[in-house]
Amino acid sequence: MIRMTVIALIVAAVPAAAETIDAAGTGIGVAENKIFEIAEGHMVMHTVGIYDGFDSDGPFKDATGECFGEAEMQAGDVSGSGACVFNTEDGETALVDWEMQAFGEGGATTGVWTVTGGTGRWATATGGGEFNNLTDPEAGRFENTISGEVTFE
Fold first, then answer.
1. SS3 of residue 59 by DSSP
2. How does pLDDT run across 31-84, given as a tens digit for each residue?
3. Which of 4, 53, 100, 151 to pair with 90, CA 20 to 30 A apart?
4. What is the Cα 134 distance to its own chain's centre?
């Protein structure tokens, strides 16, 4: 009986193996951006992206939710940051921070994203990667392509 208890304690003390998952995918949704003209060639944008879903086999598969934040654009440069709150297909919440760093091809904004927490397995998740977000202002829609990894402890 004592041997069984010792074995059970040893097994319970060994942490579960971490799992790293490729997070590549594309999110689509509605863009609700508001532009504030400061001066010629200088603007501030309040941005809200409402995700209809995520085309991915990774941890964001079929996730919905919102990303929001601000960005400043001046003399061809862009900088900004914000957060995303995603509802995953498992019923958990993922919190992701983003930082806009540059303009990409076709006027896309590019930058980096980082997992900062959430519920369930997202509470201790780590990881991040890059994004390339292209918005069609006339249609009010966006397509956000991400790369990177998420590790679940």
1. coil
2. 999 999 999 999 999 999 999 999 999 999 999 999 999 999 998 899 999 999
3. 100
4. 15
